[in-house]
Every structure is written in C-alpha cells, then in structure tokens.
C-alpha cells in the first residue's frame, strides 16, 4: 500500500488545468486536476515538467498553494528572464495539460499537532506554502496562535492580499514593503532584520515554531536573525526558492 502511494508520488502524470487566476500583475494561481492525487500536507511542493516539441524538457518545483483537502493549486511568479515561469504565467490556459509529480517534501510541513506559536516569514512568492499552512490551520480549527511577516517589494506585489486582509483564523499579519510604499503607508519598510523580527515575532521564550520561505538570501538572513534572537535552529524551518532575492 505504502509502496503504491510512493510510486504514485514519483510518477509523472498529465493534469488538466482547471483554472488560471491572476493574483497580481505578474503572479497567477493555477488550479490543477491530476487524475491520481494521494493528498498533500500543508507546506509540500510538486514538480512541474514542460516538454518542448523537440523533446527538450525543463523541470521546476512549485509549492502547493492550497490546503490539504482542497483542489491542488500552485501560484507562480513570472521572472522575466526565466525559462518556465513566463510560460506558466502567460501562456497556460484552462483546459491545457501540465505534467506534474508529487506531492514532495516532508520537512517544511505543518500539522496542528506540531503546535506553535507559529511564526511565518515570507519573502515574495515565499508566501505560497505559508498560505497552505494558514488555510490548513483555519480548516482544522486549530487554536495555535500564528503571526505572519510578509516582505514584498511594493503593495501591488502582495499575493493573496484580499485573503490575508481577513486575518484568516485570527492570524496577525504584518507587512514590510522594501522598495516603495503607497501614500500614507503605516506598516514597516525595508528588509527583514533582527530589529523588525524582535518587534513582530513571538519572543523566543514562548518556544515558537518558525517557517521561513522565499528567495535563498532572504531565507538565510531571516533564519540567522531569528537564531540571533534566541530561536533554537531546530525550531526554524526553511524553504529556499532559489535566486538572489530582492525582498
Ligand atoms: C521547493 C521550491 C518551491 C518553489 N515554489 C515556488 C512557488 O510557489 N512559486 C514560484 O513562483 N516559484 C517557486 N519556486 C521557484 C521555481 O521553482 C522556479 O525556480 C522559478 O519559477 C523560476 O523558474 P524559471 O524557469 O522561470 O527561471 P530560470 O530560467 O530557472 O531562472 C531565471 C533567472 O532567475 C533566477 N531565479 C531563479 N529562481 C528565482 C527565484 N525564486 N527568485 C528570484 N530569482 C530566481 C535565476 O538565477 C536566473 O537568473 C520554488 C522553488 C523551490 C526549490
């Protein structure tokens, strides 16, 4: 039984694209309908494979944006000079097929039994697996306290803005806008550092559980800052999306 489930996760399958929804000017959410899906955990990702007419293939990983039990969805940010993301954000349409494999990953996941208090730290599209965690927390009725610190270049770039503005499940949401701020902005500005984390994050004495996701350098900076504030390294889980960042 377990072997069958594993084989299922490691096998490529063609999933139909159920919908493509704009999140921001450069970000879309793609809902997928894979014929075989064993279910996923909050925080996991899946692999996407594109094959060109000449047989050339490109594979990329994408976090699962939806909660366990919800239809599978990914949220993709277009990188202008990228190979795969411009296709996913610009060309793909409902009814198309996309090859995928998954779910993948067993470390950057959260279950209500893992406890908290939860500190979620996102840089740009790093919000995607954290949104799955927040939805899972909401859907399971977990009373684990949660706060989210989300770093974005500007307000227009904030993904899931509507949803986050509802503070789902009572999560405390703080933003920092690193490049530009709308008129009258009263939130934080500038990159995440230990001073900002000391202000918004749970104190280390409350034994928090932290999840940090975003571009590699963002994740490393934020993780080092949390450890400098006394968070035990084993309570700081990280997921690196690659790239040098800018969030
Ligand atoms: C576990 C995991 C989960 C991921 N989840 C998501 C997700 O939910 N949503 C999402 O949009 N992306 C996610 N990514 C990143 C994704 O896999 C691709 O790397 C990204 O879409 C760029 O692919 P590309 O082919 O368009 O660019 P490429 O052709 O691979 O790269 C183009 C240029 O962009 C740089 N670059 C690559 N990745 C990034 C990045 N993340 N930030 C900044 N610059 C970068 C490269 O160094 C290169 O210079 C995830 C990555 C990992 C490892």
Radius of gyration: 18 Å
Describe the main β-sheet briefly. Answer: 6 strands, antiparallel
Question: Largest beta sheet: what is the strand line-up?
Answer: 4-3-6-1-2-5
Shape: globular
Mean pLDDT: 95
Q: What's the β-strand tally?
A: 12
CATH C-level category of the largest domain: Alpha Beta
Helix fraction, binned, reads 10-25%
Q: Give me the number of helical elements.
A: 6
**Which second-level CATH architecture of the largest domain applies?**
3-Layer(aba) Sandwich
The structure class reads alpha/beta
Bound molecules: flavin-adenine dinucleotide
CATH superfamily of the largest domain: Nucleotide-binding domain of ferredoxin-NADP reductase (FNR) module
First-residue to last-residue Cα separation = 43 Å
What's the number of structural domains? 2
Which regions contain 5 or more consecutive residues with pLDDT less than 50?
A: none
Key structural traits:
6-stranded antiparallel β-sheet, 247 residues, Rossmann fold, Elongation Factor Tu (Ef-tu), domain 3, binds flavin-adenine dinucleotide, 6-stranded parallel β-sheet, 6 helices
Describe this structure in words.
This protein has 247 residues and is α/β, with parallel strands linked by helices. It has 2 domains: 2-104, Elongation Factor Tu (Ef-tu), domain 3 (Beta Barrel); 112-240, Nucleotide-binding domain of ferredoxin-NADP reductase (FNR) module (Rossmann fold). The protein contains 6 helices and 12 strands. The protein has helices at residues 2-10, 85-90, 127-139, 161-165, 194-200, 216-228; strands at 13-24, 27-33, 45-51, 57-63, 73-77, 97-104, 118-123, 146-152, 172-177, 188-189, 209-214, 236-240. A 6-stranded antiparallel beta sheet has the order 4-3-6-1-2-5. Strands 10-9-8-7-11-12 form a 6-stranded parallel beta sheet, with helices on both faces. The longest helix is centred in the middle third of the chain and has 13 residues, at 127-139. The chain starts with a helix and ends in a 7-residue tail after the last strand. 38% of the residues are buried. The model has no long low-confidence stretch (mean pLDDT 95). The structure holds flavin-adenine dinucleotide. The site of flavin-adenine dinucleotide has 22 residues, from strand 4 and strand 5.
